[in-house]
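Batch manifest line 385
LIGAND: flavin-adenine dinucleotide
JOB: complex structure
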Amino acid sequence: MFFLTDEHRMMQKMVREFAEKEIAPKAAEIDRTCEFPADTFRKLGQQGLLGIPYPEEEGGAGFDYLSYAIAIEEVARVCGSTALSMAAHTTLGCGPLHHFGTPEQKEKFLGRLTSGEILGAYGLTEPNSGSDSGGMQTRAVKDGDHWVLNGQKAWMTNGGVAGMYTVTALTEPEKKTQGITAFLIEAGQKGAEVGAEYDKLGCRGSNTVEFFLTDCRVHKSMVLGEVNRGFHQFMEILNMGRISIGAMALGLAQAALDSAAKYSLEREQFGQPIGHFQAIQFMLADMATEIEAARLLVYQAGRLKDLGQPFAIQASKGKLFASEVAHRACHKAIQIHGGYGYSKEFPVERYMRDAKLTEIGEGTSEVQRMIIGRDLLKTTAKGMQ
Ligand SMILES: Cc1cc2nc3c(=O)[nH]c(=O)nc-3n(C[C@H](O)[C@H](O)[C@H](O)COP(=O)(O)OP(=O)(O)OC[C@H]3O[C@@H](n4cnc5c(N)ncnc54)[C@H](O)[C@@H]3O)c2cc1C
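JOB STATUS: finished
ARTIFACT:
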């Protein structure tokens, strides 16, 4: 990629080596057993890979956002489960504190998160509010110096293995999204309980759980930043998260292409490698072209963020396109593998199951189209004035 710096390439090489040595050998096993790879995360922390885009004084590695996206892509090339948990921890676990935490909150929690001493989780989604995340029902009621939280969160990545959660609750329901506040909750806090783990299609080694809040008393010092800013904070975090989910899609799509290209040279039918048939070459050519286009979009969003320029729409476009490219690439990879692709003997069926998440998490493809469409019409209307 023409605009990568030496630092980006160094990150790519380092994470690729680490992922191939430490993560790849366990990928099929954690998919089969649904066991969270705690040991891998200890090693990721030791390598400084659990706080890549945060400053060193906050315990991070001090790299830019594009470096972080490249790292997620490299991890996803070998294991979607590990990439999803790493992305959720970094963007959704550390991000709220880095961007909106008070100096005291940062001092107390952020270094422990960015170093990987503890993992972070983020609870926005509820059983009855997903795409319409502002429609949440969890309530927080003020009681002296405390807030009392009651409600339920759904689909919380890393929830069962985290040391710290950020959750949203209605503090002034009549104000709708302007009356939502984010709270920091430590694992083990009375009234905060992890529920059942979801039995998922893909990313099965990534821990995803229900989370219950029952008369959970949270001190006012644990309000993230300011009261009633929670919805805006989470929307900003999601804009960043979409870059990492786009990067995860790139890694899975690339893995599918690499497997398919290799298999097409090994598998012989009609007396020659199937890669010699034009029908197979055309599929590989489409995959390669689409992946390169998707990479340009996702990396552009990361670069814009690093330059301090507006990036939200580019992040939505990158995630939308890369996730659908990953979907198509994984389906083509299975097709190229024929019957073997439909079995667990080859990893392409896992790539397909893991890639499906990227069209759903951190805003579905439909939600990305809504964001992009609204922005397009707003700009058009402005131009017509
Ligand atoms: C593995 C996994 C991990 C996750 N991790 C987290 C996490 O850590 N924290 C967290 O808070 N959440 C998490 N989520 C939740 C995720 O963000 C939601 O699943 C997602 O936002 C969609 O919400 P939903 O599942 O309720 O679907 P719904 O919102 O019910 O959508 C169902 C369908 O309707 C479509 N739809 C909805 N509204 C519209 C509309 N206005 N126009 C057109 N189509 C529409 C959707 O696109 C989708 O196709 C996770 C989800 C998964 C699967």
